[in-house]
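During the practical work, I worked with a single protein chain and the tokens that describe its fold, as given directly below.
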Amino acid sequence: MNTKIDIKVLENEHLLFFNEYVELLVNRLTHANMTLERDLGNPDWPKNALRLKNNMEAFKNLVNCAFNLESLEEDLIIATADTINKDALYISNGYRTGGGAYIVDTNIPISNALNVPKDMYMLVKRYNEDWKELDPFEREARFHIEFIRIHPFEDENGRTGRLLLNYNLLRQNIAPVIITTDLEEYYHSYIQNEDVDGMTNLFKIQSTRENEVIYELFERYNLEEKSELKK
């Protein structure tokens, strides 16, 4: 499976293509995230328009940080969730201070609110230190499953986690991952069963597919650019 891309080279030497691809990725990932959470609705409705805007802004902020930060930081995680939730009624900034014992409509247990700061600190520490030498997709799978099961925020934990997944992959010069609705059953079962191997494989397959998308788009971009030069 080929998931390695020269996205830093694209950014440095083909900035126009890079910017167009990132804009497309932001739109596709936002749409996939909101569809997966069953709350896309009619984008013309004011509430959903704001949700779309905030999700797009959150990922654009992460992309801007992707090639400048060497590690995953808690402040960035919190800022991402706060951006996604900033127009949601009754949702507080930062880590949750209450909530139930399970993810809504599941039997998946989540961290007690009092333990969230400690659990997140340890998760980020393991990611940056203990898991640093793991296969990158296994590292992301471990982080993602544990992040969702900690459920550190009052709302939008799934979307925040999937944005962080792609931020982490881009930082490592690896093609991003989009979880589409046809993969929803597998994705949720891997979280439910803490199946790191299954999630690792899912991320690897989707990253390979996205790598193909990038190169197909780049090929078309080159052809169009050459065609313009001939005119």
